[in-house]
# Entry
Amino acid sequence: MIDPSAHQVARGSELAASNELAAGNELAAGNDGLIREPVSLVRSLAQPQLESNRLAFEARMVQRAQHRRIRDDGLQRGFDVLVASVLLLAAAPLMLVVSVLILLSRGPVLFRQTRVGRCGQLFTCLKFRTMVPDAAATLEKLLATDPVARAAWASDFKLVNDPRITRVGNFLRKTSLDELPQLINVLRGDMSLVGPRPVVPEELGRYGDYAQVVLQVRPGMTGAWQVNGRNTTTYMQRIKLDVDYALHRTLTTDIGILFKTIRAVINPQPDESR
# Structure
């Protein structure tokens, strides 16, 4: 004979288990009534896998970007060497004539100045001399006596009517012929045909955080700011043009800037003369 009290205990246990199961199903059920795993449990199980997939994807993107940069650097370097070699051979007679004209004004043919290159490496930038031999002393005297010139130099490192420039030098600057020796810098690997403006070490501080971007590429004989207003742009506009070039440079962009440079040299605008 079954004990009534034992039957009541068993019945109570069944009801408790049934209530627990119903409560669990209710928590796991979706709006459509289907039984699912609790959302928190699914998320906790999937989170490590999602994080792993995200990291793997980012690593692949970084690797592809590095390979693309290496490929683009190789293409640009090959283009620089080929074009610079052809230009240097073609311009050799003209460079000889310019050298003789500079010698007649008494003083060295080339002007050498330390500039900041790729990754902050210093190099000697070459140009035909366009100033008087004692240009440094002349500038120091001018800045000490002329407040207008001092303000202009402090703002842009340039002077509107620079007394240091010779007559031959003025012609060379207007035609950009003074920069022909930089083809040697290109062949050496110090510079590219197209790139940011090469700056002196003292000037780099004015770039601020932008310097890290600009220094990722070689400075150029010509660049974005030279074909976009040149002396009509402000100093900060020049920096931003160089930064934009460094971030988005391609061989196609370089070729486009070179053609614009040739057009500017052949048909210079009055407000773009240096």
Observations:
- The beta strands are 110-116, 122-128, 192-194, 220-222.
